Amino acid sequence: MFVFRKEWLIGLFLAVLLWISVSLDIVGMHRREMSLAVMAPISRGNTDTSCVSLMFNVDWGEECIPSLLEILEEHGVKATFFPTGIWAKEHSDLLRQIIAKGHEVGNHGGSHVHVEHLPKEEFQAVIRDGEKMILEAASVAPSKLFAPPYGEWSDLTVEYATEIGYQTILWTVDTVDWRKPAPEAIWKRALAGAKPGALILMHPTEPTVEALPHIIAGLKEKGLTPVTVSQLVH
Fold it and tell me: Which end of the chain is less congested by CB atoms within 10 angstroms, N or C?
């Protein structure tokens, strides 16, 4: 009887150890999955709303900014602009106009450099330089949104950005307008991918200026309302 009880207790003890081990593995996997989700770049906003975001990465094309602002104002639309720090420094008057019109300003880095393989300190310096230069140019700090130049990112760069309080922003729809195709190609590409939560990427080009009214009209026909990136992702 004693031997039976001893073997039973040993078996029970081993079963408890196995249960604890499996439970810890499950918790660890869940935490890793949550960590990966937190560290992932944002390429789409809230899909439970009927909203999208128009976002403009800006490192050139300053001659098109006034026209873009005029069109956005005519249609009562707020967008998010991601200037580089160098552009902000050289065109502080335009940056101030963007802010004065009620648009959001994010961070495209201090300059338009390749960031995917930069060491942590150098990568974070790119973001900090952009923030500092935008603040100096407009007396307003950018939102804690980082649109990496060339759309380059890795798990590490997303982690590095998160460490200094920034979310990494990509896009749902790339209009590829930097290649300066026909305006119709730009608005058709934008509207084809325009669904709730979509982040629609553009640049300040002449074809984009011509396409923008069609994009806004098309979004409204689809029942979609443009809002800033912060409004869409938070």
Answer: N
